[in-house]
Each structure stands twice: as C-alpha cells, then as structure tokens.
Write a structure and sequence with these properties.
The protein has twelve helices and eleven strands. It has 396 residues and is of the alpha/beta class.
Length: 396
C-alpha cells in the first residue's frame, strides 16, 4: 500500500486498495487464483521459499494471490499488520488456542462469550489439560485478581453477542500486558469498523468473516489479525500443522462484498437503533440491550471506545409475566424475521435464549426470556409492523 493511500479514508482504501498482488493485470476485481500445486521456475527458488518465513507461495493451502489480497484488506480494516484466513470463525478461535496454548496453561474467558468458544474451551479442559475460568464481563481492571502464574491468554468479547455487555477492553488489556499475558478479542460484532482493538491494547483480533464481511449468508470463513510478528508466526505455524485453508472462490466472494461492508453496517445500525428505541416504549418489554442505549451495561464504555455505530444486533428481555411458550409463539409469529443463528447478512433474524443456562461466573439480573434480534436490510417500517403484529398475536 502506498503512503498516499494510508492517508485516505478507510472506505476509500477498502474500495480502491493498492495491493499490487497481480502486477501486469489491472481490473477492479481480484482474479480468482485456484491452486493446490504451486510450480517454481527452478530449484533455487523452491528451496528459498521452503526455508524462508514467507511460505505463501509454496503450496496452495498456505495462500494464493486471491486469499492474500483478502488478508491484506482485512489488515487495513482492522488496523493490523498480519492476517490469516481460516474456514470459519470458530476455526479462527481454534487457531488461537492451538497456536498459543499448551496443556496446563490457564485461560480467562468472559461469561458473555460466544457459545462455541466456551464449548471449545470446555473440550480443551476435558481432553487436553487446559485450565479455564469464566469471568464477569464487567470486571474491568479487577481481572488482575484472577491471574495465576500459568495464565497465558485472556479472551475478550465486546459487546457480548447475546447479552450485549460492553467490556472495558483497555483496562483488561493493560492488566494483561503488564503481566506479559496475550489478549485476544472476538471482534466480530464490530467487523473491525466500529472498534479498533489494537488501538486499545489488544494483541489478537478474531473475526467471523461469515458475518458482515460476507454479507450474503452464504460463506463460512474466519480470520486472525495481529500487529505482533511473533504471535503471527505462532498462529501461522499452528494453521499450517492443522492443514487449515480456505477456497480462493470463497475468498473472492468476501472480497466482492468488502467494498459495501461499511455502508451496509451503517444501514443495519440506523435501523437497529430505531427499532431498539421503539421497543423500549413497549409494555411487553422489560429491557432493551443495545450498547447505544443508556441503560445497557457498559454503555459509557461503548460511547468512549466505539466510533462507528453498533451494527444490526441487539437483544430484548420480555416482562417476566410472559412464559417461554408465549415468547416462542412471538418468535414464530414473525413473518419477516427468520429463525437462525448466523447474522451479518441482508435478512433479519430472531432467536430466543435461556441466558441463565449460559452463565457460570456472573449473575443474570433479568427474569424474563431474552430474544436476540438481528436487523437486516429490509425496510425498518416493515420490520416494526411485523414485530407489532407478532406481539399482538402472541400476547393478546
């Protein structure tokens, strides 16, 4: 990337990057380079690549011009220096564990973490001798009291993708760094647009490119991004030993979507905030958990650290007088909201959760049933009318 491009707005850099991955060929799309076998002009070139730290071009699994172009654009968006692609967001989380953690190491994970991260950690505890403690996501600098001599990794997630608490990332990262402990954040919520983890002291950012980066609900992919060359080498070595790679065709689809990601994120954000504010006026709703609304846990931290909105994800808690069956009936009465897990695309989603069953380290203060909404790109007025109709049908 040229120095002049670094001075331009992020949106301009995303749409008009200066990758120079394929010199001599000029077009807007990055060409799709499919390869298992990479051929070399001579043995000296082959041997120099095999023995160097740069193994991108020695085998198709490690990288192609298409996948490297995507990695470079993710570095630009996140403000990192090194990015690795994995076949899913969970694979990116796994890459962090297997790249940095050994049997007997101790890991801290916030109680509001993405469920499969918790499941992954529990599996490593049971079968690989990892030690794990789940902590109150609002602990801030108080996390220092949980550290042990064998603490090797602190996970963060801000906001939590179901319960929406916003962690004090700078405070936790500062404590970890003072003790020489690596921090990794699941930054999927912000897509690297609204929150810049490296500017707040975090070592590794994990992204599920399945979400906003894809935007089409049709791709599975993840990434680890860092500014630290040594951490990158460890992650890269683990990825190579695990035999993890991504399809250049899939990478090309994510590349095609990146140019519109910021615009889509802003559209999701506007509609979601408007609907969240309206739902706050409804008598059926006991709480609205949206980081940009003042009584959401960590709202002050959100306003301090997030600079690009909140995207399309938020949750509500229904009044305790409504049963699980009634809330389920509400979700199933929705017409424009589908029932599904993986958000980030154009279509709106709704999903009920039993939060108390998901917590082990912090007390959930609400008694009613939680429903998480993802607001897609449908007309916000139509979505509001759909919710109104479902409320009337389920709670009449």
């Amino acid at each position: 990337m040229t120095d002049s491009n670094k001075k331009r707005d992020l949106q301009t850099q995303i749409v008009q990057p200066k990758d120079n991955i394929t010199p001599g060929f000029d077009a807007f799309p990055v060409p799709v380079a499919r390869a298992s076998t990479v051929v070399f002009p001579d043995l000296a070139t082959m041997r120099s690549l095999v023995w160097s730290d740069d193994s991108r071009w020695r085998y198709g699994l490690h990288g192609t011009p298409t996948t490297i172009a995507l990695a470079q654009r993710l570095e630009t968006i996140e403000g990192g220096e090194f990015a690795l692609l994995q076949p899913s967001g969970l694979a990116a989380i796994s890459n962090v564990y297997f790249g940095l953690i050994q049997s007997g190491d101790y890991v801290l994970i916030p109680d509001n973490a993405y469920g499969p991260n918790r499941d992954h950690a529990d599996w490593l505890v049971e079968d690989f001798g990892l030690e794990v403690t789940y902590y109150d996501p609002m602990i801030g600098a108080g996390i220092e009291a949980l550290l042990r001599p064998n603490t090797k990794l602190v996970w963060l997630e801000a906001p939590g993708s179901v319960t929406m608490e916003v962690q004090d990332v700078p405070a936790i990262a500062a404590v970890a760094r003072a003790h020489g402990i690596v921090t990794a954040i699941d930054n999927t919520y912000s897509a690297g647009l609204a929150f810049k983890p490296f500017d707040h002291g975090v070592d590794i950012s994990v992204q599920a490119l399945t979400k906003y980066q894809s935007g089409g609900s049709d791709i599975l992919m993840g990434a680890t991004i860092t500014r630290d060359a040594e951490l990158h080498k460890k992650l890269k070595r683990a990825r190579m030993r695990l035999g993890v790679g991504v399809s250049s065709d899939d990478a090309s689809l994510v590349l095609r979507s990146l140019s519109s990601m910021k615009l889509r994120y802003e559209a999701h954000d506007r509609a979601a905030l408007a609907l969240a504010q309206w739902l706050k006026t409804r008598g059926e709703v006991a709480a609205v958990l949206h980081p940009a609304i003042a009584d959401c846990p960590g709202h002050d931290i959100f306003m301090r650290d997030f600079k690009g909105g909140a995207g399309g994800l938020f949750s509500i808690v229904f009044d305790k007088r409504y049963s699980v069956a009634q809330v389920d009936a509400f979700v199933e009465a929705l017409d424009l909201f589908s029932i599904g897990w993986s958000w980030g695309g154009a279509h709106s989603l709704a999903m009920p959760y039993n939060v108390r069953s998901m917590r082990t380290a912090s007390q959930w203060p609400h008694e009613g049933v939680l429903v998480r909404f993802y607001i897609g790109l449908e007309d916000a007025g139509d979505l509001r009318a759909d919710i109104e109709a479902a409320l009337a049908k389920a709670f009449a």
